Amino acid sequence: MFAPSVSIVIPVYNGTRTVRHCLDAVFGQDYPREQMEVIVVDNNSTDGTPEVVQAYPVKLLYERDIQGPHAATNTGVLAAQGDILVFTDSDCVPEPDWLRKLVAPFADESVVGTGGAIEAYQPSTRVERFLDAMKPFKNAYRGSESFPAALVTGNCAIRRADFLKAGLFNPNMYTGAETDLSYRVQLQSGKRAVPVPDAVVYHMFSPNVKRLGRHFYIYGYSEILLGTIYKDHPGYPWPPRAQARMMLRQVGALFTYVASLVYRTLTYPFRKGVDRDYLWWPILWMVVESNSLRGKVEGLFMTRFYRRKFWEKGVRVI
After folding, report:
1. What CA–CA distance (Å, rounded) separates 94 from 202?
2. I need a surface site. Which of 38, 78, 122, 141 has the fewest CB within 10 A?
3. pTM higher than 0.85 for the full model?
4. Could you give the CA distance from residue 308 to residue 244 in angstroms, rounded to a whole number?
């Protein structure tokens, strides 16, 4: 079995509800234990998370100066020794064969990164079922054949030497830093990142509508930040005009969801075997699209419509 040395880096903030599930799954991998290093970086937790983590054979570090998952992950990366850096989140639960499958493509020297699948963990609430059906995380997704793939740190791996040459996650990007780093590491190394759909982690999604809206507000905001950095790079698939067209489609989609809600409300009493999720789906889609648009509009103003070098101004928590 191909088994390079790996460093699994897990940032955590107030993770007592989820981190046990994550670490139990990490230490249950069918991967040679002597080739695994697990680094957990606590980012100023106030709920006793470090005490929970200390029960496991991990390297526990602290990032106290900068609040945010990217700064915490950087702290872990700088302490890592493995040839391959593996990233997941404290609210993710990997399958037992996750690590073996995620690193297998690195046997090919032209591969610099891999991205696995992120599925919902035991979806029970309406929002969790919606996200499970929606499948919002497209890991190692390429919007253009002429531009690198985007990796999501909930489930990805990158060669440590190439990662360090490309620089760390930009801590001044409150959101989007993992995509920025995955672009940089591919552009600078000339290597590629590939999807590994059978390397699965299960994500404990936020179970309420308010958190759903906030997540997609942040995602929308990050699209503008990334566009500000890469809009002039050859092959970038979402320059300002393409983003403007996408936003117009999102506005149109909102009217479609309103029409769908009206139709479903009128027909619901006559449909047998349909639960209330049937009524809620258009509402949740409106929450997703409207908050994504809100994030993009705020991002446009913050970047002065793609002109301001926001990354030189320090962290802006949104």
Report:
1. 6
2. 122
3. yes
4. 18
Contact, 260 vs 282, CB < 8 A? yes
pLDDT above 60 for 189:
yes
At residue 134, the pLDDT reads 82
- The residue among 151, 142, 190 whose CA lies nearest residue 169 is 151
- Distance from first CA to last CA of the chain, Å, rounded? 44
Q: Can you read off the two tokens belonging to residue 88?
A: 């997941």
CA separation for the pair 71, 172 (Å, rounded): 9
- Strand duo 59-62 + 36-42: pairing: parallel
Cβ atoms of 81 and 161 closer than 8 Å: no
pLDDT at 133: 85
Interval 34-58: pLDDT, tens? 999 999 999 999 999 999 999 999 9
Dist. CA 142–CA 184, nearest whole Å: 14
Q: Which residue's structure tokens are 């009217």? A: 255
Higher pLDDT, 175 or 282: 282
Rounded (10°) CA dihedral 228, 233, 236, 242 = 60
pLDDT tens, position by position, 93-118: 999 999 999 999 999 999 999 999 99
pLDDT band at 263 (very low <50, low <70, confident <90, very high): very high
Distance from C-alpha of 67 to C-alpha of 75, rounded to nearest angstrom = 12
Q: With contact defined as beta carbons under 8 Å apart, do 227 and 239 qualify?
A: yes
Radius of gyration of the chain (CA): 20
d(CA 156, CA 102): 7
Contacts of 256 (CB under 8 A, 6+ apart): none
